[in-house]
Amino acid sequence: MLQAAGVGAGDEVIVPAYGHAELAEAVLLAGAAPVYADIDPDTYCIDPAHVAACVTGRTAAVVAVHRFGHRADVVRLRELGQRHGVLVLEQGESEKPYDEVAQRRAHAAYLSGRLNGVRTPTGHDGHTYQQYVVRVPGNGRPDRDAFARVLRGKGVDCSVPVKTPVHRMPAFRRDVVLPETERAADETLALPVDAHMSRRQLQRLVTSCNALGGLLQPAF
User: Fold this and answer.
1) Which residue from 6, 89, 121, 201 puts its CA 20 to 30 A from 131's CA?
2) CATH 3.40.50.300 for the 98-213 domain, yes or no
3) DSSP 8-state assignment for residue 171
4) Transferase: present as a keyword of the record (predicted)?
């Protein structure tokens, strides 16, 4: 997309640091320089307000990544793009069948109504729950990682969605301040909401999580 849009040497492309390295690699392959913007703490998508602060005379494009079933605020980004003559590109997620999305939403509603000790996702009408991502509050990564280890020991298939933000990776390191990105990388944990899960499995998941929640100090 970047090369087709004419992005190249001397250009800057604003991308989220909360994610994986492939996007930054694509920017570098196009000959441009990645500039990392912070995320919205509720959607984990690039924050239009921080994007606006990152725009310079060299900015050629912004890439909005839809994350975990949340959609980036493309409307605000396009308004910003029109004001500054900046191209706005989107990177989507693979879409799941309607029936599967409906089941995931039902599972997510069940979990959000019963989990405690973790911060549940902010739901909205368009959320497809590609992943059900909670935050494990406390003192940062050690708490989240310990929480995950205990859950896996109980047979819960949980995962850390973003272990290291791109701006902290040696090959892409930049000296930037991205507090929401850093906090999300330290606290987030993806819990299973697969459509095939039974109510019994969901109940076991809730019981396992809630048994650990009291060990943490919620940082709401």
Assistant:
1) 89
2) no
3) G
4) yes
Residue 112 corresponds to which amino acid?
Answer: S
State the pLDDT at residue 219: 40
Three-state secondary structure of 16-78: ECCCCCHHHHHHHHCCCEEEEECECCCCCCECHHHHHHHCCCCEEEEEEECECCECCCHHHHH
Q: What is the CA radius of gyration of the chain?
A: 18
pLDDT at 122: 87
* Interior angle at CA 78, CA 7 and CA 93, nearest 5: 75
- Other C-beta atoms within 10 Å of 117: how many? 19
| Structure-token pair, residue 10 | 């001397």
Is domain 12-91 annotated with CATH 3.40.440.10? no
Question: CB-based burial of residue 90 (10 Å sphere; 0-12 exposed, 13-18 middle, 19+ buried)?
Answer: middle
Q: Say which residue the tokens 């003559």 belong to.
A: 85
Domain ranges of the chain: 12-91, 98-213
What pLDDT score was predicted for residue 126? 83
Sort residue 176 into left (φ over 0), alpha (ψ -120 to 50) or beta. beta
Residue ranges, the chain, pLDDT below 50 = 214-220
Query: Which helix or strand (DSSP H or E) is residue 120 part of?
Result: none
Question: Structure pTM?
Answer: 0.90
